[in-house]
Amino acid sequence: MPGGLFLPAILLLLVFAGALLTWRLDARQRALASRVSSVAAAERMGAAEPEETRGIRVAAPSGGRLAEVFRRLTAMPVDLDNAHVVPVWAVHTAGAAGCAAGYLIARLGLSRQAALAVGAGCGIVLVRGVFRWEVRRYAGSLTKQLPDMIELMASTVMAGLPPIEALRIAARDMASPSREEFERVVQEVGVGTPVDVALMNLHRRTGVLEYSIMAMTLGAQIRRGGRLVETIQILGETTRQRLAVIARGQALAAEARMSAYVIASMPVVGGLLMSLVKPGYMAPLFHDPRGNTMLLIGFALLGLGFQIMRWMIRGAMSD
Hints:
Elements: H1 3-44, H2 64-74, H3 88-106, H4 112-144, H5 146-158, H6 163-173, H7 178-190, H8 195-206, H9 209-224, H10 228-277, H11 284-287, H12 289-318
Helix pairs in contact: 1-3, 1-7, 3-4, 5-6, 5-10, 6-7, 7-8, 8-9, 9-10, 10-12
């Protein structure tokens, strides 16, 4: 094997090993979810419920310290199978291709060690970007369905049914993806987990803030009593107002986002125009080693600037 292809091959092997590890962890999670579902089904079919049940916490995904580091490094969603738009193996394959492409491009102007670091960084950034996009998309879908779900809960409680029955109706009648998530909440409650703890687990999985507010609200009302219907209605109105503010902020941020895209594209468009006006003017960037280095540094600074603009827009939105 030529020396220039040895390190990309090592990167490919490492990423495929990570994909295999991910597949095994997903298999364990699916088996655990299946066991929880079977226990919950047996509970619903008539198993006697003890007088005092303690909350049952699902163990954190196993796999050792190396697996945990890999999950954190790639921002892979844990216990959130429904969020995946792209198969996990395809994401890791794309990450391996990004590693190899980044290494080969960086090798034009950098040393082997530096090119290896650049290739690894490209693969990690690509995989993290896909996973984070999937999680944000999934959380956005859940957030849009929150007002309807809270209204359904309020109607159920007004009819005299307990909160757990409201969750069961939400798990049966809500659209996807809320239906699947509340099915899991009902399953956890069925094996002894308190309602507020199950909702807090839902918040930790999805990152949707309103679920934590709902968990604390229902937990306090169930333990201490009070006007549960009025509390749920206030929570629903607050959620609608918050979503309206978020939508207004996204509309205002669209102009800043477009400005960021225009600024990021200006160097590329300018280089293409210069090449059309004077052919060969940009050739030293591609044929001279010093030009290769300058081109790599320019693209790195361009990517960093674009990411900083995204962070600024997202930070303003979160505030």
